[in-house]
Amino acid sequence: MDKEITQEQDGISEPSDDPEEDPTLTEEQRLALQRARHEERRKRAKTAIKKGLVIVNTGKGKGKTTAAMGLLLRAWGQGLRVCMLQFIKARTANWGEEKAARKIGIEMIPLGDGFTWLSDNGWLSWEEIQDTLDQRPVGMHVVVTGRYAPPELVAYADLVSEIIEVKHPYQAGIKAQKGIEF
Predict the structure, then answer these.
(1) Residue 75, SS3 per DSSP
(2) DSSP state string for 38-72
(3) Pairing with 17, which of 54, 168, 172, 173 sits 20 to 30 Å away (CA)?
(4) CB 13: neighbour CB atoms within 10 A?
(5) CATH fourth-level superfamily of 54-172
(6) Contact at 8 Å (CB) between 145 and 70?
(7) pLDDT at res. 113
(8) For residue 51, which of 115, 144, 155, 133 has the smallest C-alpha distance?
(9) Long-range contacts (CB closer than 8 Å, 24 or more residues apart) made by 77-82
(10) Within 13 Å of residue 10, how many CA atoms lie on the same side as its CB?
């Protein structure tokens, strides 16, 4: 009798199925499947394209800049050079992320009104935006955040996340909280 485990025999048809959550697998089957998937990921990683990504966090929900800051900190922690160009209205603002960046030596440069707002209202043409993104160094990642990312930017980007507001404390009359909103 052949003891080899196949995906058909163990009931798993899609690589996206999580062997940890399949109650029909024995521990031995689970580990064998995890090892096989790990090896497949390693092979793909060796042949995958490495390039700088354009990442867009858009939508009306809270957390777009927070997510971008998380990526910035992750990159900084990996020893990559990082800089944050922040399109904000108050160039003299002193929010928590700016205080933290100063303490650990991350450069943050405030630039004025929001990027996606400017481009959405026609102050920056898509051609100007695309030209700037096209001219960046090959391995440079760019994260763009803002409520109304233009459709051209969404199409151009490698990764787009739309942040939606499901519930917000403002709706219950709770004021902005230090360390959460600023």
Answers:
(1) helix
(2) HHHHHHHHHHS-----EEEEESSSS-HHHHHHHHH
(3) 54
(4) 9
(5) P-loop containing nucleotide triphosphate hydrolases (3.40.50.300)
(6) no
(7) 55
(8) 133
(9) 82/106, 82/107
(10) 23
**What does the alpha-carbon distance between residue 103 and residue 92 come to, in Å, rounded to a whole number?**
17
Q: Which pLDDT band, with edges at 50, 70 and 90, does 7 fall under?
A: very low
Q: What's the pTM value of the predicted model, to 2 decimals?
A: 0.69
Residues making up the chain, counted from first to last: 182
3-state percent helix, strand, coil for the chain, nearest multiple of 5:
40, 10, 45
Please give the torsion angle defined by the CA atoms of residues 142, 147, 152 and 158, in that order, rounded to the nearest 10 degrees. 40
Give per-residue pLDDT as tens, 136-163: 998 999 999 888 888 999 999 999 999 9
- Which sequence spans correspond to the domains of the chain? 7-47, 54-172
Q: Which residues pair with 160 in a beta bridge?
A: 56
146 DSSP β-pair partners: 58
Question: Tokens 């002193």 appear where?
Answer: 94
Judge whether 134 and 29 are in contact, CB under 8 Å: no
The torsion angles phi and psi of 18, rounded to 5 degrees, stand at -95, 115
Q: Which residue has the tokens 């209202």?
A: 121
Task: Tell me whether strands 83-86 and 54-58 are parallel, antiparallel or unpaired.
Answer: unpaired
Count of CB atoms situated within 10 Å of the CB of 93:
12
Question: In the block, which residue shows the tokens 């030596």?
Answer: 105
Rounded Cα–Cα distance for residues 78 and 74 (Å): 6
